[in-house]
Design goal:
Length: 400
C-alpha cells in the first residue's frame, strides 16, 4: 500500500473523517471529531496508529470551507503532516451520485476518493505569516468599505426625506464639506435656517471662495423650498446623527488598517509597487490573495485563479466567448479593476491596450477588464523575473 487517504468533511460544529487505502477500500469507520485541540490530537493519534498498522504514510485532504477548515489545516502543518486543501469545484464530480443522497459521511468519503485520484489540488493555501497577515488586513479593510456603503445608503435615504435634491448637490453626500453643512443645520432651532452667507463661510474651508459662494446659493435656494415631513423629521435627524458618527469612526479605523497594510507591504520588499497603477494598498491585496506568484505555472493560471479568465462555450461549429468566470477572490478582482483606471491613463502598456480595444468598438468595461488582466500578467512577470516594471522600447517609442 502506497498510502492511506484521510478525507475530512468540515462543518461549523465538527468534522467527519473517512480513511481509505489506494484501492478505495475503507480502512476505518467514519468518525466524528470536534473543533478543539484534544479532538485534533485524537485524530492525529488515530491516523498514526493506522500508519503503523499498514506501514505507510497518511495524506490528509479537506475542502476549503471559508474559515472552518483553517485551524485544522494549520494544526496538521504544525504536526508535519501532508495536508491538501481542495476547491469545492475540484471534488464536485466525486460527490455526484445517482441517488440524490448527501450526508457529511458520504462527502468525507468523496474527499478521500479525490485524494486517491487527484495528484495535487490547483490551489495551495499560503502558510507564511506575511501573506496571511496581509490577506486578513486587506479583508478587514474590505469589510469596513462595505460598512461605509451601508451607512451612506441609510444617510442618503434620510436626507432625501428631509430635503429632496440635497444629495444631488455633492459628488459625495458625506464628503467633509457636506457633513459640515449637515452638522451646522442640526445645530439650528429652525431647521434649514442657514443663510447663504453662513454656508459660504463653512464651505470656503473646503473649496475656492467663488465655488463656495455658488454652492451656498444653490443650497440656500434648495433649503428654502424644502418640505420637511413632521412625522419623520425627528427620527431622520437622529439616524443622520448616528450615521455621521459611525462614518467618522469607520474612517478612523480605515486609516489605522491602511497604515498597517502599507507597513506590511514595505516589509515584503516587493517590486510590485513599481508597476504604474499599483499603490501599496492594491499590492497588499495582491500579495494577500495570490500569495507568492511564483507558485503559479503561468500567468494564465494566475488569471484563472483570480476569475478574470474568459468562459468559452463551444458546441459543434458554435463557439461563444462569454463573460469572465468570476471565480476566486472578489477582493482581488475589484482591486485589479480599480487599478485598471489609472493604469489605462498613465501606464503606457495598459494605455495602448485600452485605446486599441476602444478603437475596435469594445465597451469601456470590457476594455477595463482586459487592462485588469494585463496588470496581473505584468505582476506575474515582475515577480517571477524579480525585476522592476519597465515599458518596452517599442511601446515607449509609440507613445513619443
Amino acid at each position: 500500500m502506497r498510502a492511506i487517504y484521510v478525507g475530512m468533511d468540515i462543518s461549523k460544529d465538527d468534522l467527519k473523517v473517512a480513511v481509505k487505502d489506494d484501492r478505495n477500500n475503507p480502512v476505518m469507520p467514519v468518525r466524528t471529531y470536534r473543533h478543539d485541540r484534544g479532538s485534533f490530537e485524537a485524530l492525529v493519534n488515530d491516523i498514526e496508529d493506522l500508519e503503523r498498522q499498514f506501514g505507510c504514510k497518511a495524506i490528509f485532504g479537506m475542502e476549503a470551507t471559508g474559515i472552518y477548515h483553517v485551524p485544522l489545516y494549520r494544526y496538521l502543518l504544525e504536526r508535519q503532516k501532508h495536508a491538501k486543501v481542495f476547491n469545492g469545484l475540484e471534488i464536485k464530480r466525486f460527490k455526484g451520485r445517482i441517488r440524490k443522497t448527501k450526508t457529511d459521511k458520504l462527502d468525507a468519503m468523496a474527499i478521500s476518493e479525490a485524494l486517491i485520484l487527484l495528484v495535487e489540488p490547483i490551489y495551495k493555501p499560503p502558510t507564511d505569516f506575511e501573506t496571511i497577515h496581509l490577506r486578513e488586513l486587506t479583508r478587514i479593510r474590505g469589510r469596513l468599505i462595505k460598512k461605509v456603503a451601508i451607512c451612506k445608503n441609510q444617510g442618503t435615504r434620510n436626507l432625501d426625506l428631509l430635503c429632496r435634491g440635497y444629495t444631488d448637490r455633492f459628488k459625495d453626500t458625506f464628503s467633509p464639506s457636506s457633513v459640515a453643512i449637515i452638522k451646522a443645520v442640526f445645530r439650528l432651532t429652525h431647521f434649514f435656517g442657514l443663510t447663504a452667507e453662513q454656508m459660504a463661510t463653512i464651505l470656503v474651508e473646503f473649496m475656492p471662495e467663488k465655488a463656495a459662494r455658488e454652492k451656498a446659493a444653490e443650497l440656500s435656494d434648495l433649503f428654502g423650498r424644502a418640505v420637511v415631513p413632521s412625522n419623520e423629521r425627528d427620527s431622520c435627524i437622529m439616524e443622520l446623527h448616528l450615521v455621521i458618527q459611525q462614518l467618522e469612526l469607520i474612517n478612523e479605523q480605515m486609516e489605522r488598517v491602511e497604515r498597517r497594510i502599507e507597513e506590511a507591504v514595505k516589509k515584503t520588499k516587493t517590486k510590485l509597487t513599481s508597476i504604474t497603477g499599483f499603490g501599496e494598498l492594491t499590492v497588499g491585496i495582491l500579495i494577500g490573495e495570490l500569495g507568492n506568484l511564483k507558485r503559479f505555472r503561468s500567468a494564465d493560471q494566475a488569471t484563472a485563479f483570480a476569475g478574470l479568465d474568459v468562459v468559452v462555450r463551444q458546441s459543434g461549429k458554435y463557439e461563444h466567448m462569454g463573460h469572465i468566470s468570476k471565480r476566486g477572490s472578489p477582493n482581488l478582482r475589484e482591486a485589479l479593476y480599480r487599478a485598471a483606471l489609472p493604469a489605462s491613463q498613465y501606464n503606457p502598456v495598459c494605455k495602448q491596450l485600452y485605446q486599441r480595444l476602444r478603437a475596435k468598438g469594445k465597451h469601456h468595461k470590457v476594455a477595463m477588464v482586459a487592462v485588469a488582466r494585463k496588470l496581473l500578467h505584468i505582476a506575474y512577470s515582475v515577480e517571477t523575473k524579480n525585476r522592476e516594471f519597465y515599458v518596452p522600447n517599442h511601446i515607449a517609442t509609440d507613445k513619443a
